[in-house]
Amino acid sequence: MSLTLRVYVPSHPLIKHWLSVARDESTPTVLFRSAMTELGRWLTYEATRDWLPTTESEVQTPLAPCPATFIDPEVPIVVVPILRAGLALLDGAQALLPLASIYHVGLVRNEETLEASCYLNKLPEQMPPGTRVLVTDPMLATGGSSHSLLKLLVERGVDPALIRIVAVVAAPQALQLLGADFPALSIFTAAIDEGLNDRGYIVPGLGDAGDRTFGT
Ligand code: URA
């Protein structure tokens, strides 16, 4: 069976709203941060729909026994924010996945070569089989950072079919790179934009997500 990268652009009005707030260059830092938190929340909601493992049991209501569905506490759920900008989506993701373990990975891209290099890796040596990993990386421009992280995750035993990336804006270049090497992956993004400028920024995009989040 051949797999193809699955890319979802949810049409939820709240996602469109917060994306527009984030794109607007006049949005001040505090509001930009709120917009990213909301995008993290709603995109995580969409990304976890058919991905969170559940167990079936029964509860007793005040009136009668009733079939019940709970999140399976045995299956590890992990969130990996790619520093720096991935932190902007973390609060929203964590609001929905309060018991998830958070492993920080710092990747910085060389502004000339646009290659990503890793300066912080808090991933464990090995992840248990079946671990679900949600990656937060708001701007999938060349896709280099997410590609590097996916290699690290696969080396640690994670099945790419159980990895979901939550992004805010994706460029076709990133989708092509990630789809070529990780076809089982799923991406949830608020928008797919036209492409990149000569400095590797997404156009129209929203500018530098890290700078706008942290006011630098
Ligand atoms: N990183 C950003 O923050 N913005 C872009 O447009 C591309 C990479």
Automatic annotation (TrEMBL):
Quick one: which pathway? Pyrimidine metabolism; UMP biosynthesis via salvage pathway; UMP from uracil: step 1/1
The task this protein performs is described as: Catalyzes the conversion of uracil and 5-phospho-alpha-D-ribose 1-diphosphate (PRPP) to UMP and diphosphate.
Q: Which UniProt keywords apply?
A: Allosteric enzyme, Glycosyltransferase, GTP-binding, Magnesium, Nucleotide-binding, Transferase
GO annotation (BP), single: uracil salvage
Q: How is its activity regulated?
A: Allosterically activated by GTP.
Q: Name one GO molecular function term.
A: magnesium ion binding
Cofactor names from the entry are: Mg(2+)
Q: Which InterPro entries match?
A: PRTase-like, PRTase_dom, Upp_B, UPRT, UPRTase/APRTase
CDD domains recorded: PRTases_typeI (cd06223)
Q: Which GO terms describe its cellular component?
A: cytoplasm
Q: Which organism is it from?
A: Thermoleptolyngbya sichuanensis A183
EC number(s) from the headed UniProt entry: 2.4.2.9
Q: Which PANTHER family match?
A: ADENINE PHOSPHORIBOSYLTRANSFERASE (PTHR32315), URACIL PHOSPHORIBOSYLTRANSFERASE, CHLOROPLASTIC (PTHR32315:SF4)
Where uracil is bound, by residue?
202, 207-209
Regarding protein family, the annotation reads:
Belongs to the UPRTase family.
Q: Which HAMAP family match?
A: Upp_B
Give residues annotated as binding 5-phospho-alpha-D-ribose 1-diphosphate.
84, 109, 137-145, 208
Reaction(s) the record says it catalyses: UMP + diphosphate = 5-phospho-alpha-D-ribose 1-diphosphate + uracil
- Span of domain Phosphoribosyltransferase: 9-216
Keyword Methyltransferase attributed: no
A Pfam family per the record: UPRTase
The record's cofactor note says: Binds 1 Mg(2+) ion per subunit. The magnesium is bound as Mg-PRPP.
Task: Name it.
Answer: Uracil phosphoribosyltransferase
